[in-house]
Amino acid sequence: MAAEVYLNGKFVGKVDNPQATVQSMIEDRRKGVLPSQVNVSYHKERNAVLVQSSRGRLRRPLIVVKDGQPLLTTSHLKELGKKEIMWADLVKQGVIEYLDAEEEESTLVAFSEKELTKDHTHLEVTPLSMLSMATALVPYGNFNQSTRLNAGSKNQKQALGFYATNFFVRMDMDVNLLQTPQVPLVTTVIHDVSNYDQHPAGQNVVVAVMSYKGYNMEDAIILNRASVERGLGRSTYYRQAVAEELRYAGGLVDEVCIPDKDVKGYKTEKSYRFLEEDGIISPESKIGEGDVIIGKTSPPRFLSSMEEYSLAANVRRESSVALKHGEHGVVDLVLITENEEGNKLIQVRLREDRIPEIGDKYTSRHGQKGVIGLLVDPTDMPFSASGIIPDIVFSPHGIPSRMTISHLIEMVGGKAGALAGRFIDGTTFSTEPEEALRKELLSYGFREDGTETMYNGMTGEQYHVRVFIGDMYYLKLKHMVANKLHSRARGPIQLLTRQPTEGRAKEGGLRLGEMEKDTFVAHGASLLLKERFDADRTIVPVCENCGMVAVKDEYKGISYCQVCGDAVDINEVEMSYAFKLLLDEFKALGIYPKLELENRY
After folding, report:
1. Could you tell me if 262 and 333 lie in one domain?
2. What whole-number distance in Å separates Cα of residue 59 and Cα of residue 259?
3. What is the C-alpha to C-alpha distance for residues 551 and 188, in angstroms, rounded to an integer?
4. Is residue 423 packed enough to be buried (19+ CB in 10 Å), middle (13-18) or exposed (0-12)?
5. What is the C-alpha to C-alpha distance for residues 580 and 574, in angstroms, rounded to an integer?
C-alpha cells in the first residue's frame, strides 16, 4: 500500500515502498548526496513518510552504529587530536549525524559503548551532552537528585567571581568581584573546555558537617572569623553614576559645575564638599548618603515667552547626581568623555568592600544554599585531632531530604585531592570511582569514610561522635545583606493613596499582611498593630443628614455639606484614606455610599 509523503507538514506525493525509501534517503544523507539538515522518518500507524527541513527544529548529534559497532574509530579520534580532521568532516563522512525529535522516534540510541547490541542504530557522543554547560560543571552530578542538579546549575550563575580581566577599565552597572577566586579541586571536563581557570567563581574551603549551638539550623552555615579575616569570601561591589550636559531648545544647556547658592534646589555646602573646581568628585574620596558626586545645574523646566527676557526670573535649577538613601563607598574611577551627540559625559565608578557578614548567602555546587548564621572566633571553633579548624560548619539536616550524595562525595574527593596535590575528575557519568578515593584517603592515614575525631573548641572535650569533614568548593552569591537591608520610620508617601511608597530604593515602608499580623499577636505585641495598620489614617468630615463626605473650609473655619448645605451637623470621622478613596470610586459609578454615624459614647 502506497504511503503518503509530507515535506514540512505539506503533502507532496506518495511512495510504494516507504521503509526502503526512508532507508535510502538516510544512506544518501550520510554519503552527502542529501543535505545534512534533512531528517526523514516513517510513521507506521499513519502510513506516512515525514520529511523535515524547516528552521527552528531542535537537533542533536549522535554517532552512527552499524552491526553493533560505532563508525567512529580510534583512528578518527587520533586524527581529531592532531587536528587533521574536524567535527564537520565527521558529519560529511556520515560518522556523526544530527537527528531531530521526529527521526529519533525510529532509532535505538545506546547510552554507552558497553551497552551496544546489534539492534542499536546510534550511540551517544557523550552522556554529558544531556546537560547544559552550567549543569555539567557540577561534579558527581549523576549521584544527585535531578531538582538539586537544577538548583546547583542556577546557583553557579549567581556566584561572584572574576567575570572579565579588563574589569578595571570597564564601566559596568552592577558588578561584584571576588578578591581571591580559586580553581576547584574537584573538577569536570567542562572546567577544562570552558577555561574555568581564567574566570573562577568560588573558593576551596574545609567543611565540617555538624551542628554548632543551633546557629546553623534551617540551612544556615557557620563561618570561622579567622578565615574571613584572611580573605575568605571577600568581594568588591562596583556601581556607576552618570551625568551628561544635555542641550535644550533655545540654546540652553546643562552645566557641570559646583552650583551657586542662588540655584533653585541648592542642597547644603556640606553636600558639595568633595567636588573639585570642575564640579566633579576627586578619586578615592570616601562618600556617604546625600553626598554629591557630580555637580550639575540645568535651565528652568518651564519658560514662558516673557520670562526668557527677564534675567531675574531665569534662575537655574539644581540637578546634581548624589548618593541615594543608604548608599556609601569610595570613588574608584572618574571618566570624562563625549556621548553619541557630542555632549560632555561624566562617568564615575564607585567601589565598596564587602566582607562576609551574618545574612550573606553561600552555596556549594549542589544546590545546598544557606546564609551565614554566625561568625565564630577561631578559638571557639571545633578542631580535628590533626589541628585542622574548618572554615564552614554545615548542617547535617540538609542532606537526607535533598539526597545530594555528590555533596558528600565532593568532600571526600576534595580531601583526597588536597592531600595528593592533584585535581579530582568528577565529570558526570565518568567520575573517578568513590572506592578509589576512599583507598587514597586510607593511604594518607585518614579514615576512608571521611570522618575524623574532633574536639570542642570552647571546652577542649572530645566529641563523642566522629565528624564528617573534608574540602569542597564553596561559592559566594550576589544576594548580600548590604544590598537588601531596609528599614524606615517615617518617609515619603504616595500621592494617590497617602500610603508609604513601595521598595527599598524609594525609602518605602515594610508591608504587613495577615500572617505578619499573627506573628505580632503571638509575640504579645498586638497593640503594635494599632500603629502599624494606620499608615494612611485621615480625618474626614461627614454629614449626619445624608451620610456623604462633607467639606471643611480651613480658611473660613466653617464646615458644610455639598448636598444639604451648611444648616446640618457635620462630624469628623477617623478612617483610612484608602477607604475614603473607595467612597469616591463608588460616587464615580453613581452609587450612593451613605455613612450612618452612631454616637461613640
Report:
1. yes
2. 62
3. 75
4. middle
5. 10
Pair 363, 391: CB distance under 8 Å: no
Which member of 219, 262, 518, 536 is catalytic?
A: 219
- The verdict on 184 and 74 lying in the same domain is no
**Residues 67-76: contacts with CB within 8 Å, 24+ apart?**
67/118, 68/116, 68/117, 68/118, 68/120, 69/116, 70/113, 70/116, 70/123, 71/95, 72/96, 72/123
Take residue 315 and report the three cell numbers written for it. Answer: 534662575
**Euclidean distance between the first and the last CA atom of the chain, given in angstroms as a whole number:** 95
Beta bridge partners of 336: 346
Helix (H, G, I), strand (E, B) or coil at 572: strand
Q: Any catalytic annotation for residue 219?
A: yes
Torsion angle of the four alpha carbons 117, 118, 124, 128, in this order, in degrees rounded to the nearest 10: 0
Can you give the CATH number for the domain in which 261 is found? 2.40.50.150
Q: Which domain holds residue 500?
A: 486-532
Cβ atoms of residues 271 and 265 within 8 Å: no
Same domain, 112 and 11: yes
Annotate 452-470 with three-state secondary structure. EEEECCCCCCEEEEEEEEE
CA distance linking residue 355 with residue 229, whole number of Å: 9
Q: Which H or E element spans position 575?
A: strand 570-576
- Cell reading at 91: 558529519
Distance CA 453, CA 383 (A): 9
| Cα 413 from Cα 140, distance rounded (Å) | 10
Q: Quote the CA–CA distance of 424 and 431 in Å, as a whole number.
A: 9
pTM summary value: 0.83
Tell me the average pLDDT of the chain. 91
In tens, the pLDDT along 228-267 reads 999 999 999 999 999 999 988 878 889 999 998 888 889 9
Mean of the pLDDT values across residues 502-507?
85
Is the same domain home to 117 and 11? yes
Q: Which three cell numbers stand for residue 389?
A: 579548624
Cα distance between residue 485 and residue 357, in whole Å: 12
Strands (E), 339-484: 344-354, 361-363, 369-376, 383-384, 392-394, 424-425, 451-455, 462-476
Gyration radius from the chain CA atoms: 35
User: Are β-strands 292-294 and 221-224 bridged in parallel, bridged antiparallel, or unpaired?
Assistant: unpaired
**Pairing mode of beta strands 558-560, 570-576:** unpaired
Distance from C-alpha of 355 to C-alpha of 364, rounded to nearest angstrom: 19
> Residue 376 sits in a domain of what CATH number?
2.40.270.10
What's the total number of domains in the chain? 5
What distance in Å separates the CA atoms of residue 587 and residue 597, rounded to the nearest whole number? 19
Residue type for 446, please? F
Whether 122 shows a pLDDT value over 80: the answer reads yes
CA distances from 554 to 125, 481, 557 (A): 83, 47, 5
| Structural domain includes residue 593 | no
